[in-house]
Amino acid sequence: MRHGRAVVVGSVVLGATFTLVVTLAPVVRLAYANVRLHVALNTGEALVASLLAYLSIGRFGELRRLRDLLLSAAFVTFAVVNLMLSATGTASSDDFALGFVIWASVFGRVVAAGAFAAAALVGPDRLVTARVLRVWTAVAIALAAGLAALAMVAELNLAEILDPELSPEAAGRPRIVGHPLALALQVALLGLFATAAIGFLRRTTVERDELLFWFGAGAILRAFAQLNYFLFPSLYSEWVYTGDLLRLGSYVFFVIGGARELRGFWRVQTEVAVLGERQRLAREIHDGLSQELSFLQSQLASSHPPGPEMAVHLRDAATRALTESRRVVAALVDVAGADLAWSLRAEAEDVARRSRATVGVEVDPDAPVRADSHAELARIVREATTNAVRHGGAREVQVRLERAGDGARLLISDDGSGFDPTTPPTGFGLRSMADRAALLGGEIRIHTAPGAGTVIEVVLPGQ
Q1: Is 364 exposed, middle or buried (CB count within 10 Å of its CB: 0-12, 13-18, 19+)?
Q2: Is the dihedral of CA 69, 71, 76, 78 positive or negative?
């Protein structure tokens, strides 16, 4: 991505400079007692992690990739851990639950960082089936229960993790002190975030996924944050550390990546909407203007001059073609306000009378059909009738709209020649009808055979 190298180098320089300054310059305070700021930082990070979890879950629902599932699990766990740490900001150091929360938070961060690092190492082609998803859910529940049990059996007194007599304010240089397990977990977190940084940045060069790049850049700062947590006492909930500031910086990168991902999503949605509108206009031109012009062409190309009756039809067709062209240009297709039975009959009869075919229309007034679907249903009837009389030579077309369970069913049947439904269609008509049915949330079914007529069935869901 653009300026990618500069961002990565800047992240490394920022984390290294920050760590060196607080390590080599004893006059620089590395911790400030501010409970409210500590709570605010953890709460803000929990909200950011929740947003990223939502984004990752959306990507997983769309692509079903293992990587997105791992990212979802990681950010959900980060959100829970930060909320737990926010709660410790108001707890007393003598509170029995405080030790449990501290241990559970450390264990939770290791699990979240492990999922985060694993996501950086998994390729985009690893998909998740429904069965695998159920297994992962069971494993996650068991893991959460195990972490809670592990925190319970651990020494639940904060003093067992870090000597409460050791003030962070007095630590002007690195002091690697505390419970060995806590120190080991900090080192594990450092390694996991460093692995995630390398993995995400390498994936970015291959997949060109900008979100992964920002995850990688943020993971660099997070690795330096863990280094600060290891070098200085860092388990007091009422103190704000240099490691907390670096951790906040990592979330800033995560937010930038999430924001750019959302912007890209809306850009794609806009492009999809434009494509959909173009397809809609293509259907309108085909089902309206194209049909009228085709009729005019076929009649004017005839070697026999049109009689008075046909001249009237030609004039009417030209008028309708002009109307259709104006309708397409203005993108205003709205017959939803008209009576549905009248609209269906008008569309079918308008096509059928040119070939002197007869039309019957029957509409059940209790059929649950939304008003905004009238236009699409009328267009389907028009297209089906056109196919029946033009390609099937039908002399009779029957249109029936009826209730079908909670939904409705539209049937257009004819006595034409029918066709082989296994033969791929060469025109745009069947696809146009299928697209219109899909827009209404329904589906189209075609019942036909050579010499047996055709029945077009449109099944619509309940409102």
Answers
A1: middle
A2: positive
pLDDT above 50: residue 159: no
Window from 63-67, 311-315, 369-373 with minimum mean pLDDT: 311-315
> Would you state the structure tokens that stand for residue 54, as one six-digit string?
């939502």
**Three-state DSSP class for residue 343:** helix
Q: Quick one: average pLDDT of 332-346?
A: 62
- 408 burial (CB, 10 Å; 0-12 / 13-18 / 19+) is buried
Q: What angle do CA 453, 457, 458 make, to 5 degrees?
A: 150
> What's the whole-number mean pLDDT along residues 123-127?
80
Q: Is it the case that residue 117 has pLDDT exceeding 80?
A: yes
Residue 143 vs residues 169, 224, 429: alpha-carbon distances, Å: 36, 27, 55
User: What is the C-alpha to C-alpha distance for residues 47 and 142, in angstroms, rounded to an integer?
Assistant: 25
Q: Look up residue 112 and give its two tokens.
A: 């979240």
pLDDT tens readout for residues 45-82:
899 999 899 888 888 887 888 888 889 989 999 998 88
Reduced to 3 states (helix: H, G, I; strand: E, B; else coil), residue 394 is coil
CA distance 109 to 115: 10
> Any idea which residue has 């002399």 for tokens?
395
- Residue 332 is predicted with a pLDDT of 43
Helices 308-330 and 291-300 cross at an angle (nearest 10°) of 150
Q: What percent of the chain has pLDDT over 70?
A: 69
Token readout for 31 is 């911790």
Q: What is the C-alpha separation between 109 and 343, in angstroms, rounded?
A: 63
Rounding to the nearest 10 degrees, give the CA dihedral for residues 148, 152, 154, 155.
140
